[in-house]
Write a structure and sequence with these properties.
alpha/beta; 8 helices; 188 residues
Length: 188
Amino acid sequence: MYRTADELDWEFLSNPGKTAQYRRWFDDPGIGGELRKFASDQDVRVWIKDVPMKEYARAQEGIGNFVPYVRRRFRGADEIVHFFCGPGWSVVPDSVEGKPNHCLATDGNVKRYICWGKAGVLKDLIWAVLNEAIDSPTRPGIVITTRDGETIPQHARERHVRLANHCGVDLDHLHRSMIDNPDLLPDR
C-alpha cells in the first residue's frame, strides 16, 4: 500500500483520488481479499483508511510503527530541532511523538518543546504549544513545514508569525526534501 501511495504522491492526491485508491486496495485480492478473511467488509474499509493510511504521514516523518514501510521520508525531528534551535541542540531521547508531531529539544542545560506540521494544522500546533507554555519554563516553538511541490505565500507566512507572536510562542517556516528511508525493510 505504501509503495502505491508513494507512486501516487499521496499527500498531494485529491480526496476523490484517495477514495478511488481506497476502493482499489479493498478490491485487491492481495490486500482487501486477505483482510476480508479476518474482518467484515466494513471493518476492512475502515482499517485501510484509519490504520495504515492515517499513519502514512507520520511514518514519513519518521514517527511510529509504520516507518519501516515508507520508501522515502523526511530526516526526522533532528532536522527540525537543528533548524529551529541551532546546531548545539538535539532531540531528547524518546520524546518524539505525533498528534501533533512534537519533541523536546535540549542544549544540555534546558529543554524546549517544539512541534511541527503543515500550515493546514496550524490551529492544532498553536493549541499544543499554548498548553505546553502554561507548564514550561522555556518558550515553546512551532515549525510550519513545506515539502517539494508546496509553497506558502509570503502574506500567509507573515500572518503565521503574527499569530504566534500574539500567543507568546516562536514560529518559523522550513522547506524540506524527502530522503530514501534509512529504516526501510527490504522487500520480501
